[in-house]
Amino acid sequence: AVANTRSTSARIDLGWLQWTMVIFSLTFLLDLIDHFFADVSLFERISMVHLTILLLVNWMFYKGLKQPTIFLGITYQDEQLRTVATQHSPEERAEVQAELDRIRSHLDRSRPYTDPQLSLDDLAEQLQLPPRRLSMFINTHFGQNFMAFINGYRIELARERLANP
Length: 165
Hints:
By secondary structure, the chain is an all-alpha fold. 68% of the residues lie in helices and 0% in strands. It is built from 8 helices and no strands. It has helices at 2-5, 15-36, 48-66, 76-85, 90-110, 120-127, 131-141, 146-163. Helix 6 crosses helix 7 (131-141). The longest helix has 22 residues, at 15-36. The two termini are 36 Å apart.
C-alpha cells in the first residue's frame, strides 16, 4: 500500500513491526514453557502470555494509528473505479486519452519526479486531479503503481544524464 501512494518508502518506519514480531515470538515461546514446564502467572487467573498478548495488540493499535498510511489498501470503491475505467464509450476514451496526455506532458515539462518526497497527493494537486482518479489512471492505463511509475521517469532521467554528462 505504501508503494501505491508514495514515490519513496524511506520515511515509513516499520521497525516497530519487527519488534512486534520478536515480542510475539517470545510470547509464543513463553506460552510453550508455561504449558509444558511451569505455571508462569502473575495472578491466579491471568497468565503472563495473555497479558503480553493484550499489550502487543494495544501496541500494534497505537503504532497503527500513528502511521495510518501503511494500512491503506485497495478499497471496494477503488475496485469499482478500476472496473468502470475499462468500460469507456468512444467519447470517454478521448477524454481519458486527453488526461493521460496531460499527465505525461506535465511530467515531461515540470519534472516533478525530481522531488524525492513526491507523493500521489502532491502530483494530483499539481495536475488539479483528485488523487484517486490520478491513481486510477496510473494503475489502469500505465499498468503500474505510483512508485514504479515515478521511478520509471527517474530512471530515464538518470540514463539521459549518464549518456550526456
